[in-house]
Amino acid sequence: MKGYVFHGPGQSAWEDTPDPELKEPTDAIVRVDAVTICGTDLHILKGDVPEVRPGTVLGHEAVGEIVEVGTDVRTVRPGDRVLVSCITACGRCRYCREGVYGQCLGGGGWILGHLINGTQAEYVRVPYADLSVHPLSGAVTDEDAVLLADIFPTAYEVGVLNGRVRPGDTVVVVGAGPVGLAAVATARLFAPERIVVVDLATARLEAARKLGAEAVADAREDPEQLVADLTGGLGADVVIEAVGVPETFEMCTRMVRPGGHVANVGVHGRPAILHLEDLWTKNVTVTTGLVDTRSTPTLLRMTAAGRLPTGQLVTHTFPLERMEEAYEVFSAAADTGALKVVLGGPQREVVAADAV
Fold first, then answer.
1. Do the Cβ atoms of 100 and 121 come closer than 8 Å?
2. What is the pTM of this model?
3. 244-257: buried (b, 16+ CB within 10 Å) or exposed (e) per residue?
4. Which residues, 6+ apart, have CB-to-CB distance to 86 below 8 Å?
5. What 3-state DSSP class applies to 244?
6. Where do the Enoyl reductase (ER) domain residues begin and end (predicted)?
C-alpha cells in the first residue's frame, strides 16, 4: 500500500509501505476513505516530537471501512463505516476506567502516527478497536466525521469543558486555527454572552465571525485593551489558548479576570513564563490537557442533528495520492488560506478561505 512516511526532520514521502496486519485479537484493519492533516503532524516533521521514529506512517484522524477484525473485537465487523479516533483506549487501566483515555496505561493514548503507524495511508491497523473506532451513520459525511477524530473533541474537552464555559460568560479564544475555530463553535453551545477571537490572519478572523464570534481582534492591535473595554475592566471569564507559543499563553493570563479560567490547548515547543507574581492573588485556574475523546459519541450525535458546523472548516480537498501537495498547502496556511485539508472522498480542489 501507499502511506505518508516520516524519515526524519524535514524528510517525508508518499511511498510504498507494508500493508498493516492484525497483531492482537483486539485489532481492526480499516481501509482509509478520508483523512486529514493536523498541526501536530507539522510539529513532527520539524523534529519537535522525538518519540516518532523514522519509518513511521503519520496521521491520527480518519474515516474508513472495517476490512478485518481480530477474534476479540465485538462492536464492529467488516463492512462497517467508522471514525478512527486520534486516541486509542485499552478500556481496562485506571485512566480508561475514569474516561481519561488520553493517559491510557495499557498501550493506548496518542499512539497512531506517533508510536505506531498512523492513518495517512490506504489502510491502518487500529488497536483496541472496540473503544477506538466509532460506527458512523449515513447522516454524517466523511468530511464532517473526520473533523471529529481530533480537533472538535480537543477544542470541546481541553478548551470549553476544562475552561468551564457557562451561560453569560465572556470567552476569549486566542488563535483562530482549526482548533481555535472549533472552540468557537463548541463554546456557543453554552450560550456565552460574547466570544472574542484573537489572531494575526484577517481570513481566519473572518472565519471566526462566520462561526459565531461577536468580536475579533488583530493580535498586533492591543486585544487586551479590547477585552478590558468589553468587560468593564474586569477581564474574560474564560480564555482559551489555541496557538502554543509563550507570548500567547502569557497574553491569556493577562486577559483573564480574577476567579477566571485559562484553558491551554496549544502544543508548546518552548517554555512559557507563568507570572505567579501577578496571578497568585487572583484565584485563576490554569488547565492543560491531551484530549481524551470521551465526548466523541456526543459530538457525532450533534453533528448528525446539524448542530455543529464541522464541515465548514474544510477549505481544501485532495485525493490520497496528492498527500505531499496537501501538506504543502496546509503548512503554508498564511498564503493558501487553508484551515483543514481533507484527503479522499469527493474532490473540491481549492476553495477560498471565505467559504467558511
1. no
2. 0.94
3. bbeebbebbbebbb
4. 38, 60, 61, 110, 112, 149, 150, 291, 293
5. coil
6. 8-343
Dihedral (Cα; 102, 103, 107, 112), 10-degree rounding: 30
Distance CA 7, CA 319 (A): 22
167 near 190, Cβ under 8 Å? yes
- Give ∠ CA 100-249-164 in degrees, rounded to 5: 45
Residue type at 36?
T
Contact residues for 222 (Cβ-Cβ < 8 A; gap 6+): none
Q: Which residues of 51-77 are buried (b: 16+ CB within 10 A; e: fewer)?
A: ebeeebbbbbbbbbebebbbeebeebe
Determine if residue 271 is left, alpha or beta; phi over 0 gives left, psi from -120 to 50 gives alpha, anything else beta.
beta
Question: Which amino acid belongs to residue 256?
Answer: V
CA 118 – CA 183 distance, rounded (Å): 25
The single residue listed with the C-alpha cell 464555559 is 165
Strand partners, 290: none
Helix (H) or strand (E) holding 238: strand 236-241
Q: Catalogue the long-range contacts made by 74-78 (C-beta closer than 8 Å, 24 or more residues apart).
A: 74/130, 75/129, 75/130, 75/135, 76/28, 76/129, 76/130, 76/133, 76/135
* Side chain identity, residue 332: A
User: How far is 294 from 65, CA to CA, in rounded Å?
Assistant: 22
Nearest alpha-carbon partner for 167 in 196, 194, 195, 192 = 192
pLDDT at site 345 = 58
CATH superfamily of 152-287: NAD(P)-binding Rossmann-like Domain (3.40.50.720)
Domain boundaries, the chain: 2-150+293-343, 152-287
Residue 32 to residue 2: CA distance in whole angstroms: 11
C-alpha 328/C-alpha 318 separation (Å) is: 12
Q: All 3 cell numbers of residue 275?
A: 507570572
Low pLDDT (below 50) residues in the chain? 346-356
